[in-house]
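In response to reviewer comment 3 from the previous cycle, which asked for concrete evidence that the modeling workflow produces usable outputs, we include below a single protein chain processed end to end. The sequence was submitted unchanged, and the resulting structure tokens are shown without manual editing.
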Amino acid sequence: MIEVLNPGLQTTIQAGPRLGYRHQGVPWSGAADPLSLALANRLCGNIWDAPALEITFSPFACRFHKRQVIGVTGAPASLVLGGRSAEQHRTLTAEAGEILEINPTRIGSRIMLAASGGFHADQLFGSASTYLPASFGGLQGRALRKNDQLTVNELLRNVEHTSTPKELLPTLSNSHILRVTTAPEWESLTPLSHRRFVEMPFFADRQIDRMGIRLSKNPLQLEEECTQIESAAVAPGTIQCPVGGVPIMLGPDAQVTGGYPRIASVITADLWRMGQVRPGDRVRFMLVTDNEANKARRTLAAITTNWCGSEWLSAAARER
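The workflow returned the following structure tokens.
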């Protein structure tokens, strides 16, 4: 049993995405940074998509009521376990009665906390991930609260204490370059906006959550006849451009259809990085071809497969 002492700004139970239900209006959900989910679970001996805690911006604190093996990844933050400094990306053992404190992040937005066996959570539509807009999955479909008691499933084998290999340690900053491919309504942008999209920086607005990231500064302009489209399919990573010209990057909890022009899509290999964008961060887009996007996905899969398997990446690519 793990007791929540400080849930922070927003902490939810997240696992892998919900695949195969978009035609029923059910979004992906799942960890905004699936790479950090996979790495945290690997430290605990879990399968890549075992339910873990997604901690947004921290701070966070919890008490362990029995001995527990854990792993913490994602946005860099200082950890204190049992009154002693602890490290991310390393298998940790919390003794009964010890408190884990995760201090606020200044780079990146989300921390993943995994526990050996995975957190017990409500399963629906093939995933335990919390979907806040409809209040299902996770713990009663909601964010964690102070005094919540979390149950961890039993892992029927010993966990080897290890650390994330150096080549897999994510590098994060407050400036992001996201690779994108053109989307069906790319040509709805004016020629000047085509250049501006790839040459000028955008900045993440304060309006940021698991549904999407609104980008401010350097608004784009749509051709007059292209300000709206018939409702069409969208997915995490889709970049829409409303009439005001302020792009929106859709997150894991975004709707499955939308009526704004779809101008670009963040490639599968960079979705984890998009999940770490925080308000005020600088975002630039690099336009790549479909072949280059597929090559980037295969390259990332090759790097991570031996450590945490490639399923975490192939799952994200399956429905895009």
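The first helix runs from residue 34 to 43. We consider this sufficient to address the reviewer's concern, and the full set will be provided in the supplementary archive.
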